[in-house]
Write a structure and sequence with these properties.
It is a single chain. This protein is of the alpha/beta class. Helix content is 47%, strand content 12%. Helix 6 packs across helix 8 and helix 6 packs antiparallel against helix 12.
Length: 355
């Protein structure tokens, strides 16, 4: 698959990632065809793209955007990205339909935050052109893209996906098809270890988040990160990684997150999660945690002990990624710094801390 001068991009879906991708493409001179079942959904995408282009002071790029409600129009595309859903069954069905109309020589990309490509790829009759990708939100801001080498994908297809990502002025990091890829595998122990300390009564979310920011230099604490992403979204990724890695205890989804979801707490956008958001931009502690955690904040642990435990869990997971052949140390460090915005990658950090 040699690089195309001006490929026609097809984007199947209508969510925030789809709109962000469409905006990124037209801003870089690539014509885009957005495909969804309803005009209403497509109008929402148009509105988001136009708003983003005005913010970027590039409204003229909107002329490169078209829309359609029929899946067969993918036959006109050179690259098609499926990003409509993270539901495996729905994704399999969409990929099957796209595959039926898309020229076998054209590239098919499936967007995923952590679901292994092989789970949905079995529905594709031309698997050699299927590549996974994880575009991070907000797409217009985040530079990193994990390019996932599906086991049946040809080297040419992966190279074409890397070229496409580079055209968008983003940084592609290749990785093997594995649950959570790189970034969400590293995020799991970071979040899990912090929540375990809360569950043991060692501290509050605000105390642990603040300590990891001040002592560790993390831009965001793990628990406030859950609220930012959304509890449902974070728990879904945690379940994917846990289940597809054969349920390791170290990555078991948090019972605290599950309990808060059961009580209707969804995260920052909905006004409450581990923190309560109102007039306070940073949020205040959720009082429900006192009901859920026995001896809540009554068994303090030294900040240095918590930081050491969090870092060691992350370092260990990074080594597992290398041992499993998911990615090399340099790519893992780059993904951590660009995808999680950490000040150092785990291998850089480990070398610096224990040299």
């Amino acid at each position: 698959m040699p690089p195309l001068i001006e490929p026609q991009i097809g984007i199947v879906g209508s969510g925030e990632v789809c709109a962000g991708l469409a905006q990124a493409c037209v801003q870089h001179g690539l014509p885009v065809l957005v495909i969804d079942d309803t005009d209403e959904a497509l109008c929402r995408v148009e509105g988001r793209v136009l708003k983003g282009l005005h913010r970027a002071e590039e409204p003229a790029a909107f002329s490169l955007l078209r829309k359609a409600t029929r899946i067969d129009v993918v036959s006109d595309c050179d690259i098609v990205i499926e990003c409509a859903t993270e539901d495996p069954g729905h994704t399999q069905d969409l990929l099957r339909r796209i595959d039926a109309y898309l020229d076998p020589k054209k590239l098919l990309i499936v967007q995923s935050t952590g679901m292994p490509v092989h789970v949905v790829g079995r529905s594709v009759e031309n698997p050699n052109r299927l590549v996974g990708a994880h575009f991070f939100q907000p797409v217009h801001h985040m530079k990193l893209v994990e390019v996932v080498h599906y086991q049946h994908a040809s080297d040419e297809s992966v190279a074409a996906a890397v070229d496409f990502v580079s055209r968008l002025d983003k940084v592609p990091v290749r990785c093997k098809d594995s649950p959570g890829f790189i970034v969400n595998r590293l995020a799991r122990p970071y979040i899990h270890t912090a929540l375990e300390f809360v569950a043991q009564g060692a501290g509050t979310p605000a105390g642990i988040d603040g300590m990891l920011r001040s002592l560790g230099g993390f831009p965001a604490g793990p628990i406030e990160m859950i609220d930012f992403l959304g509890l449902q979204e974070d728990y879904a990724v945690a379940e994917i990684v846990y289940e597809f890695l054969d349920r390791p205890e170290r990555l078991k989804p948090s019972a605290l997150t599950y309990s808060l979801l059961g009580r209707g707490f969804r995260g920052r956008r909905q006004g409450s999660g581990f923190y309560m958001y109102g007039d306070s931009p940073t949020g205040t502690g959720n009082p429900v945690l006192r009901e859920l955690v026995e001896h809540y904040d009554e068994r303090p642990v030294k900040p240095e002990v918590i930081l050491e435990a969090v870092l060691k869990s992350v370092f260990a997971e990074a080594h597992r990624l290398v041992d499993e052949g998911v990615a090399g140390p340099e790519d893992i460090d780059l993904a951590a710094k660009m995808g999680l915005l950490w000040p150092r990658g785990p291998f850089e950090w480990e070398k610096e801390r224990y040299r």
